[in-house]
Amino acid sequence: MLSLEDVGRRFASGTEALRGVSLAIAAGDFIALLGPSGCGKSTLLRLLAGLDRPDHGRVSWRGAPPASGEIGFVFQDPTLLPWASAAENVYLPLRLRGVALTEARPRIAEALAKVGLAGFETARPAQLSGGMRMRVSIARALLTRPKLLLMDEPFAALDEFTRHKLQADLLAWWRDAGCTIVFVTHSIYEAAFLARRVILMSARPGRIAGEIAADLPAGPARRLDPAYAALVATLTRRLEESHRQGAPA
Ligand code: ADP
Predict the structure, then answer these.
(1) Which CATH superfamily is domain 2-66+147-245 in?
(2) What is the pTM of this model?
(3) Nearest CA residue ID for atom 15, ligand 1
(4) Annotated domain spans of the chain
(5) Residue of 89, 174, 206, 233 with fewest CB within 10 Å of its CB?
């Protein structure tokens, strides 16, 4: 669906955020970008979204590049309008496209119900927990049925119980939506639980240090599966090796 060939990005400040990054992303895949803070993960997402351009190499789409709305973004901060209700927040991308609220309402209700927030349409962000606010943010991203969903450490600020629940739910939403997800994280556990491909990144400048296929059995028992524990161990070992070879973290 999308490929990066030998992509490099150096900012005007002189910081080289990415060097020699090549990656092919297939439709329907779930990819985790795993690496320490500052290794260029967010920069890579912005390049995929077309919000930034590489100054070396190419980012190319197979076929036509996506139209606006075909790429969804979810950040660590749910970025909700504080004065607007959950429904109005979810409505935002359709409102920006000129879709009337009466027409959008069934889709908004469906999106909120899908993320477990039926009955919370009129709640303001301040009345919702951190996990619920993230659910609103994900509902808003899924509403436009994106082909590609880019997620930048969306669960990093949540407590572990909420994070586990959202991770499990995200896998169900991804299967249901049939979209492609690129998920940035610095958690080995999160990458192992969610992704089918884990891309390991190393810092300064950000490069791909390796890739591990991670096709664990589906279902709620995944976290207890010995294959999950083995994958966590493999990822831990690979990250320690790449730290030994590279700059200190
Ligand atoms: P990550 O998401 O892995 O934490 P980022 O992609 O945010 O990393 O940043 C990679 C490096 O590029 C960091 O050293 C960061 O300070 C730097 N950087 C990011 N954006 C800019 C920018 N707009 N201008 C200058 N430096 C930047």
Answers:
(1) P-loop containing nucleotide triphosphate hydrolases (3.40.50.300)
(2) 0.94
(3) 38
(4) 2-66+147-245, 80-146
(5) 233
